[in-house]
Design goal:
The protein has 257 residues and is an alpha+beta fold. The protein is built from seven helices and twelve strands. The protein has helices at residues 59-78, 84-105, 153-159, 165-169, 208-211, 216-223, 228-241, and strands spanning 2-10, 14-23, 33-38, 46-54, 113-122, 125-131, 135-140, 143-146, 181-182, 191-196, 202-206, 248-255. Strand 1 and strand 2 (14-23) form a beta hairpin. InterPro entries: PP2C (IPR015655), PPM-type-like_dom_sf (IPR036457), PPM-type_phosphatase-like_dom (IPR001932).
Length: 257
């Protein structure tokens, strides 16, 4: 497991604590997930990002690393110069193009790609952007809420009222994604939603190695631990305790002021 911690602090008006953890799980011999967190150290925003790679010969690991680097760099270079939704759309597009170019240059990596979910925060406003089935959640006094909607074939069936959410949870094709970065599909356009980030709210980003094995009530309990570093670590440990069938990533963000 590797762990990250950052804090965005504007005295008296805003404090956001962010902790992330990433682990191969118990069934995989390498880790194709990648995460990053960036505090607002004068750049005007804070950022959290989770990518879940796919592809043979460790290509998924390359894809997720390229996506994290490309998106975080593009946002840093262009924040404040481009409207936020367009900034995120272009960052995802650049990442998808870069992954596909890498696959063209390396035949063993053909078809590599990754899912991606991020939160970009500007003071008390956040933008959630994603492509694929990596997820964003919010935990408040009212409960736990999924902020993202999976880009999967099965979720499309749910949206069309062809199957129920309960059927979707055990559907044999529930892992078949309909959007991702790279993979030669040119289907990486993100869905983007904007939310308020009130004091006392917890946010979480995760790969499906976490959300597939832990129910919402357990996620809510673990996200709400007293310290965000403990929350991230215990989420990983709980997913491994449930079998750890896939790589596992979690980033917890808490607004304490």
């Amino acid at each position: 497991m590797y762990k990250l911690f950052k804090r965005t602090h504007h005295p008296g008006t805003l404090e956001v604590q962010m902790a992330g953890a990433c682990d191969p799980g118990r069934a995989r011999d390498h880790n194709e997930d990648a995460i990053t967190i960036q505090e607002d150290d004068g750049r005007g925003y804070y950022l959290a990002l989770v990518c879940d790679g796919m592809g043979g010969h460790n290509a998924g690991e390359v894809a997720s690393a390229l996506a994290v680097e490309t998106i975080s760099t593009y946002v840093e270079q262009n924040f404040g110069q481009i409207e936020t939704n367009l900034l995120l759309e272009q960052a995802f597009e650049r990442a998808s193009q870069r992954i596909d170019q890498q696959a063209e240059d390396n035949p063993d990596a053909q078809g590599m790609g990754c899912t991606c979910v991020l939160i970009l925060g500007v003071r008390d406003q956040i933008w959630v952007a994603w492509a694929g089935d990596s997820r964003a959640y919010a935990v408040t006094e009212e409960g736990i809420f999924q902020l993202s909607t999976d880009h999967t074939v099965v979720q499309e069936l749910v949206d069309q009222d062809l199957i129920s959410p309960e059927q979707a949870a055990v559907h044999p094709y529930r892992g078949r994604i309909s959007r991702c970065l790279g993979h030669g599909k040119k289907k990486g356009a993100p869905t983007i939603r904007q939310f308020e980030f009130p004091s006392g709210t917890n946010l979480m980003l995760c790969s499906d190695g976490l959300s597939d094995v832990l129910p919402d009530h357990e996620l809510m309990m673990l996200i709400g631990q007293r310290d965000v570093r403990s929350s991230a670590r215990r989420l990983i440990e709980a997913a491994n305790g449930a079998g750890g069938p896939d790589n596992i990533s979690a980033i917890v963000m808490r607004r304490v002021v």
